[in-house]
Amino acid sequence: MQRRVRKWALTASAALLTATGATAAALPSAAATPATVDGATVYQPIDGFGISEHFGRAAIMNGSQGLSAQHQREILDLLFNRTTGAGLSILRLGIDSGIQPTDPGGPNATPKYTWDGYDKGQVWLAQQAKAYGVNRFYADAWTAPGYMKTNGTDANGGTLCGLSGASCASGDWRKAYADFLVQYAKFYGQEGVGVTDLGFTNEPDWTATYDSMRLTPAQAAEFTKVLGPVAAANGYKPACCDSFGWTQQKAYTSAIEADPVARGYVTTHTGHNYASAVDSPLPTSKRT
């Protein structure tokens, strides 16, 4: 969102620092240096800033592991309070195999979903964030459930069965995986939290010893065309592809942009900067 604000005259000065102990010495303060910020000059839109508390981090924050109500509020204020804290406005939710951990009997079998209303503390955190005014929730899967993948396990990579180059004796799990992701978002809707962005992969170009799944750029574009209609029919917007490097993400974005069907479904392109830093825009006019 772009906002026009008035010019501010800012003055910066170094604080007087003192150290305790026998060798304590005060550092001299620097001369005041004026700086002018013109809020009317727009360089790029920024939708917001956020965090993820996946892998049980949210459960550590709430009372299930002994954190007092006072300290819960202190942490929540630091994260989400727009006056006294960071005022974060995006929460990224981690999807794992928890809502259907076992094979229901094949990709065409009736799903056997389960929901505990807790999701390793993420439901609680999302509800708390919403109370602070957060209204953007990005639900993203690190992997499809292991029985849907070529390696049969949640961890250590593997590819979604049914994608080009990934055939499995168990069959084609692409549509079942799309339904799985949408059902996860629906469960959050039941808890009063509206998922706004839905992702099907996290670092598809990196094999981790924890939850992970490999997808090539072409496979990511292919699955986007499977998830897209299912997500759109239920009011969710796909995001892709959370590559482990910004430069590497450009290949995924390019593959999606090159396919007119896939391009029409992805509303936000996502990348990380572990392998490479953000040095130029992704090749898309969509949000990144």
Q: What this model shows, in words?
A:
The protein has seven helices and eight strands; from the N terminus they run βββααβαβαβαβααβ. α4 (174-190) packs across α5 and α5 packs across α6. With 288 residues, it is α/β, with parallel strands linked by helices. α5 links the parallel β6 (197-199) and β7. It starts with 7 loop residues before the first strand and ends in a 17-residue tail after the last strand.
What characteristics describe this protein?
288 residues, alpha/beta, 6-stranded parallel beta sheet, 7 helices, 14% strand, disordered N terminus
Helix-strand blueprint:
Layout: E1 8-12, E2 33-37, E3 50-52, H1 57-61, H2 69-80, E4 90-95, H3 122-131, E5 136-141, H4 174-190, E6 197-199, H5 217-233, E7 237-243, H6 246-258, H7 260-265, E8 268-271
Parallel strand pairs: 3-4, 4-5, 5-6, 6-7, 7-8
Antiparallel strand pairs: 1-2
The coarse silhouette is globular
Arithmetic mean of pLDDT: 90
Secondary structural class: alpha/beta
The number of E-state strands comes to: 8
End-to-end Cα distance, whole Å, is 14 Å
Number of helices: 7
* Largest sheet report: 6 strands, parallel
| H-E order | EEEHHEHEHEHEHHE
* Rg: 22 Å
Task: Give the strand line-up of the largest sheet.
Answer: 3-4-5-6-7-8
SS strand fraction: 5-15%
Low-confidence stretches: 1-25
- Helical content band: 25-40%
